[in-house]
Structures are given as C-alpha cells and as structure tokens.
Amino acid sequence: MENFAKLVTKEVKELLADDPQKQVRATALAKKIFQWLDEGGVGRIEEGLKQEVVAIEKVFEKQEEQISAHLEER
Amino acid sequence: MRRSLKSRRSKSPRILRNVERYPAIMPCTVKSVRIKGFRGFNSQKEIDLSPDLVLLFGDNGTGKSSTLSAIEWCLFGDVAFIRYEGRTHDELISTFQNEGTIRLTLQSPDGDIVLERAKLKAREKTHLKIVFSDGTQFENEQAEQAVYRTFRLTFDDFIRSTFLHQESVRGLLTENPVDRNAALDRLFGLDALRNITDGIRSVKISDRQEKLQAKINRLEAEIIASLAEAKRRLDDSKKKGKQSGLSEAQFEIKHGSGLAKESTSDLSKLADESGFDRPFVEEPTSFSSLLEVAESIQGYIKRIRKKLPEQAKVDELNRHRTRASAVLSDCSSKKSEALLKEQNLKAFEKEHGDPDAITGRIKAAARKIEQLDKERTEIKSKFKVIKDALQYLQETGENACPVCGGTLQDREKLLDHLKSELEGHEAKDIEAIDVKIEKAQGAKAEAEKEQREHKRLSDETTRARRELEGVVSEVAAVLQRVITAKDDSEDLLREHMAGLDSQIKKLEKPLQERETQLQRIEDRCQKMTQIAEVLKEEENIKKFEKLLEGKELQALQRGILELESLREILDAISKAATKVQTDLAASMIKNAHHEISSYYKTICNHPYYENLEIDVRPRTVRGALRNEYYIKGVNKSESEETLASQKFSTGQMNCVALAIYLALAKKDIYSHNLRFLILDDPSQNLDTSHKKALAEILLQLVPQKQVILATHDSELQAILQEAAGAKKPLIYRFDEWSKAGPEIRCET
Fold first, then answer.
1. Which pLDDT belongs to residue B394?
2. Is A12 on the interface with B (CB under 8 A)?
3. Does B193 touch chain A (CB under 8 A)?
4. How far is the CA of B136 from the CAs of A70, B24, B52, B112, B288, in angstroms?
5. In this predicted model, what pLDDT tens digit does every residue of B43-83 receive, in sequence order?
6. Number of domains composing chain B
7. Do B467 and B340 share a structural domain?
8. Between 20 and 30 A from B278 (CA), which of A39, B317, B371, B598?
9. pLDDT value for B16
10. Which residues of B touch A46 (CB under 8 A)?
C-alpha cells in the first residue's frame, strides 16, 4: 500500500506540475485517500470525500442562508 | 450471494507504538495445524503438514477445504467464502461447540512461530496469540499487527498470492468483461487502486456542482425579482407620499425626523392642557425607527382621543340625552296606551252599563229562572193528577169520583175531557215554559259575559295606569325633580333634551379644534410612514443591487470553484491511480511473461494458439477509468491471435487462470514471508493432459515453495503421486465424517 501511495503521489505531482498550489492539495488528499483505503476501503473513501465536499457545501449553505435572510427581510 | 470485492474492507492492522521490534523472519512454511470446534471439526485434530508437498484427498464435504480455511482463518481472522459470499463468522464455529480454536505452527530457518486464534460463538472479536521462536509473544491487536509486519501481507494479498481459491479462478472464467477485468486486477493485487477510483467516482462532484449552480441561479433570479418588486414599491410609495403633499426632496430621514419632532411637541402641549402624560418619542435615525415613531404617535393619539375632557363631557351629555330620549318615547307610548284603555272601558260601560247594572241584570235573570222552574213543576203536578185520575177511572171502571166518591153524571164525557187535557195541553204547556227558561238563562249568560269583559278592560286600564306611573318616576329621575299631576312629563323631557343639545353644541367647537389638531398630527404620521417606506425600499434596492454585484454571490460562486478544484484534483488522483494500476499490471505481466507463457504451454497445451499474451490498457468504463486486460491466444507462425475469452473452452480458461496464478507465485511478485502455496480443487474442468501438466508445474515449484493441495480428483491425486516419485507427497485421505469430525488417514 505504501508503495502504491508513493507511485500515485508521484503521478499526481506530474499531472499537476503546472499548478503548484493544486499539486500540494492533491498530494495531501491522495495521502488521506490511502489512509481511508487502509481504514475501510472504498466505503471509507466515499465517506471521507463526502466530508470534504460537505465542508465546502457548508460554507456555501451558510452564505446562501445569509442571502436568503436578506431576501426575507424585505 | 456473492459480494463485490470492492465493497469490502481491505484493511491492514493499525500500527501500535508500543510494539517492540519483531524478530527477523525468514520465509515460513506450514508445519502443522491443530483444529478444534472449527467447521466440521468438533473434537481436536492435529495434522502434520511439514513436507514440501501435501495432498488432502477425499470426496466433497469431508473436511479438506475446512482444513485449508483453518490455516487462513488462523493467520488473518478471515475466510474467503465468508468474505465473498456475505456469510457470518459464527458459521465457522462447530454446531456442537461454543468455541473454535486453531493452532498453526509455521516453521522458518530460525525456528517455529506458533499462532493460536480462538473465537466464541456470537462474539465478533477473535483472540489471537503469536509466539516467536525466541519466546517473544503478542496478543490480540498487537498479535494481528505482528502477523502483518512479520509476514508482510494482508488477507487480500494472501488470497491472491498464496491461497488459490476457486473464487479467484471463477472470476477469470466469467463472460462479463467488467467482472473479468476486476478479477485480473485482484489477481495482480491492484484492486486497492481500483477502490480509489471507485471511491472518487462515487462522490459525484459534478452532480453536486450542478446542484449548487442551480441554487445560485435560483437565488440570482430571486434577487432580480426582489429588486424589481422593491423598485415598483418605491414608485408606489413616492406617488402616495406626493399625493399627501411631500416633495421629492422631503423623502429623507431628516424631514421625517422634523415631522416627528413637531408632532411630539404638539402632543406634549395637548397633554399638558388635558392633564395627560407627555408622549415619549426618540429621535428617528433610520427608516425602521421612523416607522416605529409614527406607529407610536398614532397609538398615543388613539389612546388619548377617547379621553379628551371635551369629548368626555360630550359623551356624558349624549348619554343623558339618549336616556331622556328613551324615557320620552316610553312616556308617550305608555300615556297613549293608558288613554286608549280608559276610552275602551268607558265605551263598554256606555253600551252595557256599569258593573252594578250588569250585576242587577244577572240577578234578575236568576230570579226569573227560579220562578219559571217553579211554574214548570206546578204544571207537571197538575198533569200528574189528571193522569192518575184517568188511570183510576179506566182501571176501576167505576162511576164514582176518585176524589170525593160522588157519582159521576157523565163518566165517558169526563174520560174524554181528561184525555183531551192530557193530549192537548201537557206537552204544549211544558214546552212553552221551557222556552221561557231558556231565554232567561241566555239573558243571564250574556250578562255574565259582559261582567267578565268589563273586568278584563278594567284590569288593562289599571295596568296601563301603573306603567304610566312607572315612566313618570323615570322622568322624575332623569329630570331630578318631583313630577306633579299638573306637570306634562313629555314637555318637561323635551325641554330637558333641548337644554342638553344646547350644551353639546357649545362643546362641539373646542372638540372640533382638538380633533383638527390631532388630525394634523396624524397626517404628519402618515407622511412619516410614507417617508419610511420610501427609505426602506431605497435601502432594499441598494441591498439587492449590492447582492447582485457584491461579494455574497461571488462567495457562492467560490464554493462551486472550490468543488471544481476538488473535482480536478480527484480526477488527477484517479488518473494517477489508474496509470499506476496499468503500469504495475503491465510491469508484472512483463516480469512474469516468461513463466505465464511457459505454464500456459505446459498446462493448456493448446493445439493451435501455442502462446499466451496479456495486454493491459486503461479504458473508461461507465465513467470510470479501468484496466482492461486482453488475454490472447497467439499462433506466432501464422501471425494469428484471438481473445481467449471468445475462443477458449472453460477448461482452457481454467488453465489460463492457473498459469497466471502459478507464474505470479513463482516469480514472487509479492515480496512476503510465506513460502507456501495452497490450492483448493484446482483441477476443475481440466482433462487428463492438463492435470498432468499441472502436476508437472506444481512439482517444479516444490523446491521453491511448499505446496498444500486439496482435491477430490482421484486422477490428479494419482498423477501427482506418480509424478512426485522420490519427492513422495504426504497424503491425507479424508474418508468419512462423524460427529467428532472428519476421519483422516495419513498415507505416505
């Protein structure tokens, strides 16, 4: 598994070579994905990624709630 | 039901910090296994498996596969058929035992390693103990980790590289290319990478992006609609404000504040004059506080309007007037009624006389009746005498008078006379008197009726008078004076009401002035409300315009961009995982190509496609990048090739699976510390020549690997036994099964 992680990380770095910021995020996420895979397979990866998405969606929803509140104030 | 491998946990033990370094381990073989309470093994059985080639031979269901499962369960706490067929671990424990225990002894050049795993029924966890040759030992989680660290493989690795299950072979024989590719990925140990791409795909970020974009679009549309609505309301409010006399320049908080100040000042003055508390109003600084001030002032006006002294006086006078008016009306009607009743009584008396006259008539009629009754009795007596005389004369036949006894001169004449009196006068006289009686009775009844009617009229008149007297008392109460007989209550009341009207009229002017004053303040409040509404809508417009152009929507858009960035990153990881998967598969195929080809030729010995080649390429299947394997039979001399899955028989595909598995095992693709191979029933669908070839290869592997093989195939057993020659396999014959467990005979 460690070998897989190293190989995948190397590939990811190459694929995102022109975007260093994204490269850093991708490397960190790949590490997490391998950790999730080790913890609970595909189900755990799905759960972990959904949490990542939900974190983004929560910020979105908070902003959405603020706008909706502005609209309701009228 | 068979479960998909990808949905199962592929887990290596968690690293524990407190575990000391393990003794250095050289590759191990199986020395022995001791089984108790596991599957069909009820009583304890110990099987020596130390030789390089061990055959477990017997019919299906005699305990061979259970023996092999005992080895994998002891090492990893898991069993392939449980994992793939979705069954429970309790099925591993014997029906007649509450606990299953396996003791597995592995031998390495450095000494024996003993593993002991136990599980109680209905308990999820198993207990594992591992003891190394130097006496180092671990239990439970530390022991699981020790297994992983010592032998350097997980359960998944084990079933790929060490234990050839029928499930692994079956995957290659399937007609579905997707399942076949998945089986080959598993065989090459690459399904972990496949799990990564599956996990990434399952998140469906694009769907979520679309959902968020739809939300943004909805919000944007809502803001635009709200902006238009606010503009429309602004126009309406300004129009209304201008109609109330406000100019364009006056729609500002300063003007609203001025109006509030003026209103408060006027109200305070009015409060002082009327003895009320002054209103408390803060200076408005925003449209909402201006609105609050307007509402507060309006509320104050509403409260004091009813309590103004002038108004209170007018209300009191009106109450008096209303009462006087009601009494006047009552008085008039009662007076009329009393008069009418009296007139009725007088008219009656005029027609029928007064009560004494009526009583006199009744008495006279009674007397007349009495007299007539007497006359009637006398007439009846007279005719009785005549009847008696006539009867006497007729019955006796005598000629003597029945009264005096003297002789009758003309008896017959007398009889005729008596008869004629009776027949001619009795009925007539009585009838005449009866008519008179009836007439007298009629006169009496009529007089009595008149008496009753007089009484009724008299009573009514008395009641009307009393009611009138009651009303006069009310008049006295209203006027607050004594009413004498000379007084005309109605006139007095009218006079009183005129006085009240005059007083009310006098109060109207000051009251009207107060009302005008309040109305002026209310008009200001209305203007304040209109200014507030205009300011509110102007603020709304600014807010909506800011929302449309401002950072809020941009922040939402950033959420989508973040998801997009996450999607790109996950795409890159997915692509990288697939590339690594493809590269590793290609590398392993290349590395083991010689062995695969050689084993294929030996086991399969295809009459035309003498070589086997495997290509692997990434391909998008149902939105996911996958390794696609092309297993081809090749005829080099005629430059012909075909996909094995299309042209090969099941037996030939089984040979292909065995060739790949054994080649990978031989090449030690997985660098772990288990130097043995376990094969469970590998000769399915193989004919004699294939079996011979399989035996040949297995024997070639034997110096390098220990081989433990279970089969019910007597032909394979015979072939192996014969081919082994000097290597002499250790053969266990699984004959029968009793409640104690399988009957195992050892043959050498």
1. 83
2. yes
3. yes
4. 69, 12, 27, 12, 80
5. 999 999 999 999 999 988 889 999 999 999 999 998 887 87
6. 3
7. yes
8. B317
9. 42
10. 199, 202-203
DSSP structure string for B223-257: HHHHHHHHHHHHHHHHHHHHHTT--GGG-SHHHHH
- How many residue pairs bridge chain A and chain B with CB atoms within 8 Å of each other? 140
Contact flag A40-B9 (C-beta cutoff 8 Å):
yes
Residues of B whose CB is below 8 A from A40: 9, 11
Is the ipTM here above 0.90?
yes
Q: What is the dihedral of CA B425, B431, B435, B441, to 10 degrees?
A: 120
Q: Is B624 on the interface with A (CB under 8 A)?
A: no
CB of B223 within 8 Å of a chain A CB? The answer is: yes
- Same domain assignment for residues B442 and B317: yes
What CATH number is associated with residue B363?
1.10.287
Domain that holds residue B525: 225-307+508-548
Look at chain A and report how many structural domains it folds into: 1
pTM over 0.95: no
A5 part of contact set with chain B, CB < 8 Å: no
Residues A32-65 have pLDDT tens digits of 998 888 777 778 888 899 898 888 888 888 888 8
Inter-chain touch B11–A64, beta carbons under 8 Å: no
Instruction: Evaluate whether B189 touches B632 at the Cβ level (below 8 Å).
Output: no
B5, B211, B580: best mutation site toward chain A, by most A Cβ within 10 Å?
B580
- Range B106-130 average pLDDT: 92
Residues B111 and B15 in one domain: yes
Task: Note whether residue B668 is domain-resident.
Answer: no
Q: Which residue in B215, B566, B567, B574 has the most chain A C-beta atoms within 10 A of its own C-beta, making it the best mutation to test that interface?
A: B566
B319 and B292, same domain (yes or no): no
The verdict on residue B748 lying in a domain is yes
pLDDT computed for residue B1 by the predictor: 32
Q: Give the rounded percent of residues in chain B with a pLDDT score beyond 90.
A: 45
Report the alpha-carbon distance of residue B62 to residue B58 in Å, rounded. Answer: 6
State the residue range of the domain holding A27: 2-73
Q: Which residues of A touch B215 (CB under 8 A)?
A: 60, 64
Distances (CA, A) of B153 to B23, B144, B158, B469, B581: 17, 11, 6, 122, 19
Domain check: are B5 and B72 in the same one?
Answer: yes
Report the distance separating Cα A36 and Cα B682, nearest Å: 35
Q: Are B151 and B42 contained in the same domain?
A: yes
| Beta carbons of B6 and A42 less than 8 Å apart | yes
Please tell me if residue B3 touches chain A, with a CB cutoff of 8 Å. Answer: no
Chain B nearest CA to A39, separation (Å): 6
B365 in any annotated domain = yes
Minimal C-alpha gap between B145 and chain A (Å): 14
How do B29-36 and B99-108 pair as beta strands?
antiparallel
pLDDT of residue B2: 35
Average the pLDDT over B257-270 and give the result: 92
**Are residue B4 and residue B101 in the same domain, yes or no?**
yes
User: Quick check: A26 contacting B, CB < 8 Å?
Assistant: yes
Q: How far apart are CA A8 and CA B371, in angstroms?
A: 149
β-sheet bridge partners, residue B720? none
Q: Tell me which of B711 and B671 has the higher pLDDT.
A: B711
State whether B540 and A46 contact (CB < 8 Å): no
Q: How close does chain A come to B241, measured CA to CA in Å?
A: 20
Q: Do A40 and B11 touch (CB under 8 A)?
A: yes
Based on DSSP, count helices (H) and strands (E) in chain B, helices before strands.
21, 15
| pLDDT value for B668 | 67
Please write the tens of the pLDDT for every residue from B634-688.
998 998 999 888 888 888 888 888 888 888 877 766 667 889 999 998 888 888 9
| Number of neighbouring beta carbons within 10 Å of residue B32 | 16
Q: What is the CATH number of the domain that holds B115?
A: 3.40.50.300
Cα separation, B239 vs B533, in Å, equals 11
Asked if B618 and B625 count as a contact pair (C-beta separation under 8 A), the reply is yes
Cβ–Cβ gap A15/B547 under 8 Å: no
